[in-house]
Amino acid sequence: MTSSLAPVFYLPHGGGPLPLLGDPQHLALTQFLTQLGSKLPTPAAILVISAHWESPHPALTAAENPALLFDYSGFPAQSYQLSYPAPGAPQLAAQIADKLQQAGFSPQLNTGRGWDHGVFVPLLMLRPQADIPVLQLSLLKGLDPATHIALGEAISFLRSQNVMIIGSGMSFHNMQAFFRPDLVSDNQVSEFNQYLIDSLQPQHSYADQAQRLINWQQAPHARLIHPREEHLLPLHVCFGAAKGATAQVLFNDKVLNKTVLAFGW
């Protein structure tokens, strides 16, 4: 991670609100995110790209005080009483929209949408004080990996403005296998994870790293690990935003019986 620039992180957010409920299969993740947050310098703002918001064009939350979007069901009542009263960042959202437009995107400012659990669940562990402005950037519905790298490159300027960028997803996301672990073996997960780790090694040029991420479906067991790639693509945005910085593996442990990764730049 480059000390003169705000950090970029691709982080696992776990299953719904479970990391906040003391779930034993999330203890390693909860401990990691809590400890990571305690070590971080205070950013001017936090931008989160969550796996749980897709839009035809890049969309940004632009309300002064966004509500929480409880986009999960079947959890205890306390899961729907959580709060994260951080302010929004409408002026920053407008600035980002201008930069995205310059990069050839057609951004939209959304004043009605709240922050989904891909935003507030990790932030409740990383920054429980809820005292830093937060905004959310959507994925693009086409789920094209190259476009998401370009999206990240277009927001890379934020790092020099002390805006921390978080891609909130899961490097493993096969919902059936979370409930039936035998569907995907530990070795299969390890081989896919190793492809991601190898792809981000500094001996590869930025262009080669990008090509490996664009061709992620060539990774071992790729479609078994990600039947749909919305939880992987926040990594591509982070990679573009880090723009050639060296990635570090920050977390390599089990969540819901499957090993997931976190990267930092």
UniProtKB/TrEMBL annotation:
Coiled coil: none annotated. Its cofactor is Zn(2+). One of its GO terms (molecular function) is ferrous iron binding. InterPro entries: Extradiol_dOase_DODA, Xdiol_dOase_suB. This is Dioxygenase. Residues 42-247 form the Extradiol ring-cleavage dioxygenase class III enzyme subunit B domain. It comes from the Bacteria. Keywords: Dioxygenase, Metal-binding, Oxidoreductase, Zinc. Belongs to the DODA-type extradiol aromatic ring-opening dioxygenase family. The lineage of its organism: Bacteria, Pseudomonadati, Pseudomonadota, Gammaproteobacteria, Chromatiales. It holds the Pfam family LigB.
